[in-house]
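User: Working on a comparison across species. This one is Transglycosylase domain-containing protein from Microtetraspora glauca. Can you predict its structure so I can line it up against the others?
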Amino acid sequence: MQAQGKAQATALGTVLRLIAAAGAAGVLAAAIALPAVGGAGITVKSVKEELNIAPEDLDEPPLPEKTTLLDAGGKQIAQFYFQNRESVPLDKISPIMRKAIVAIEDFRFYEHGALDLEGTSRALIKNLTTGGVTQGGSSITQQYVKQVIFNKAETQEDKAAAIAPTLSRKLNEIRYAMAIEKKYSKDEILNRYLNIAYFGAGSYGIEAASKRFFGKHASELDLVQAATLAGAVQNPNNTDPNLGKAYRDRLITRRNTVLDRMAELKIITLEEAAKAKTKKLGYKDKPIPGGCEESEFPYFCLYVQNEILHDEQFGKSEKTRREFLNRGGLTIKTTLNRDMQKAAEKAIKKYVHTGDKPVASEALVEPGTGAIRAMAASRKFGTNHKKNEMSFNVVADALHGGGTGFQAGSTFKMFTLVTALKEGMKFGDGFNTGATFQANGYSDFKNCKGENVGDPTTAQGNSEGGAGGFRTLETGTWGSVNTFFMTLERKVGLCDVVKTAKDFGIKRADGQKLREFQTFTLGFNEMDPVTVASAYATLGARGKYCAPMAITEIVDRFGKVTAFKPECKQAVEEEIADAATNILQGVFTKGTMRGVGGIGRDAAGKTGTGDQSRTVWFAGYTPDLAGAVSLGDPRGPVRYPLGGQVMGGRTYGSVFGATIPGPIWKDTMLGALKGVSATSFVAPDMSRFGGCTQQCAPRRPAHDDRGGDRGGDGGDHGRGNGRGHGNDDGGPIIID
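Assistant: Here's the predicted structure for Transglycosylase domain-containing protein from Microtetraspora glauca:
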């Protein structure tokens, strides 16, 4: 007994000397260990009073939680995360998992307070004699505190400080742990610890780790799996099974240590431990895809991601919005219709292959809501250019991750047609047009600033030198006659046409202002399929424009639901929209799509072709669904026109809107609308739009419309002058 007392006194003297020498550095926290050293009449209470160690509230920001994107039917399509984590309540964690983690990390967790005096004193004496923190001795509560501080650290310096081997940090941990013990029950602390801990292999929290390691929920873990995950917590970077055999071997060794400890504490029998130790690791390596590149529908995913990152309703700064998306634990329900998406993908794949240089892209939009039902492209999304992957969102505008878009061609003639109907023209109204159009003077066309933008030095022609003649709103549209639409635009006013287009949601894909020149009606502005499809959906909804919509509902981590409604306005009178639709229906039966044919239900639309087949489009709609298809070479349509290129295993000479985009649209609609009851268009008010108010069309068969494209895309292929905007080789842009 005398020898034992002498040893204790020696240890006590050593501790006291070290405390005195290192007090300024915060080493006084070691005094809490003194009662375990023995004797001297020093108590925990007296030491706390001397050191003024009192509970201190810990700021516990919400843990980073993964965000999940769902399609319209509630099925996952993507996920975003800063840390792959899914927090679960304690009753969703198997009892054996709870026992395993307590056994190996803090077996007296339910018996002690904020810290385990026995373990802490042993560790602190060791730390004091070695001059640093070489042993942990931390309770589960202290470990939770350390994880919280580390997770909320924003800089590398703060992160390093959160795990620095200093006793001053341990003192702070103790203060916070004391407050946590007062604030929560033991079960709640354990639950929070299991949800915050890192287990390796990119898995944060027990639920994500269970799925990653074993492909099951935390509630389903068995003894072997629980011991494995409990063992991984101590040094997850050293036992990460993804990093190779040596790491997996260390994890098995650590698992077996946990099993031995559980047997020692009589949580399991020695026989159960021995049997469990014979099992293989069983690591499943379940993928944890994150971000749009890993999504089944990457282009739609990119649209949603950028919708959140650029909308201030989701945060005042981009950093806040990115954290909202990647850390918020959101469930985002979207407008994507999986069947319609598959229909678009199948149709595109039929005509344009993933390895082709030109890229076809398509967007489907629901009239009356603006809901984007599909976004598809011929190329896969990614950054591997050797695999011909597309690194930007070719289906959308720059604001939603897209590029500069493609010139929309004669799809823009629709806006001139609608403007003419708004200004009182009737179906039979028209005028004689020549084989070419040339402005009489610079004042023939004025932009919306009142500036002269006409160009009398440049002539626009019809496709393949098509002849002139008398054209009406109907025949000029069906034949897509350039000279007719240039004349019509001059008559109704360039600015009025621009205003109509803007009312239909038209804006350039690159985010710049619309270019307002005389060839505006021929579509020299670069567009994206979502914008064009939404514009045509306006006619499908009888003149009601609805902004493109991808998100219908967001549920946050606390279950709060935020619903999003369509943002719509009446862009044009219903009767005018009905009249325009009536004319555009003829494109399938008497115009540029007559060789492709209809879809067995009411449909209307317009082809579009750039000069020399640089870009081609088709935009069409029914009352139930609208779609726009673009085709162009992202390397630069001027330098790489479509003629002569291979698409879908076939080399094309000339390419028009009805050559590839039209058939893609048709096949898409046949698949997307399968099982959807057909809705009819509203017939036009013939008392208002029938006949003509000016010179009427001469009587002749509608099919004798020379100046069309002779089986191609009408007058879409005529010449124009876009004033060099968007040209990729520095020369003048010639478009339809």
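For your comparison, note: The CA atoms of residues 205 and 435 lie 72 Å apart.

User: Helpful, thanks.
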